[in-house]
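sry for the spam today, last one i promise. struct tokens for design, 108 residues
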């Protein structure tokens, strides 16, 4: 019975993170569709890279938020920092690829 409560608290506690990133995914998809409707196509390969790096950044960000308290074990703290830096790097590169693809499609 405790496992169900802990699991439900875990899901409810991190729900806003998933909702925010899900909302961003929907906005980006609508933007891609809008570009497609006006005849400015973004290459599929660029979209795949953007989607993949965005999801990798999301997963790493959630992992870094879920690691143990740094005062319990020093190794978890180091992994948490690496995961957070990796998440921010992946999200930044994903954003740059998105901007590059949009600019390239508008310039055509």
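last one done:
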């Amino acid at each position: 019975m405790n496992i169900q409560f802990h699991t439900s608290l875990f899901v409810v506690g991190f729900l806003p993170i998933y909702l925010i990133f899900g909302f961003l995914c929907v906005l980006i998809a609508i933007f891609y569709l809008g570009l497609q409707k006006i005849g400015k196509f973004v290459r599929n390969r660029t979209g795949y890279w953007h989607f993949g790096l965005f999801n990798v950044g999301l997963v790493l960000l959630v992992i870094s938020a879920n690691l143990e308290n740094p005062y319990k074990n020093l190794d978890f703290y180091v992994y948490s920092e690496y995961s957070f830096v990796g998440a921010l790097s992946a999200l930044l590169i994903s954003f740059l690829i998105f901007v590059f693809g949009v600019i390239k499609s508008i310039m055509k």
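The radius of gyration is 18 Å. ok im logging off now
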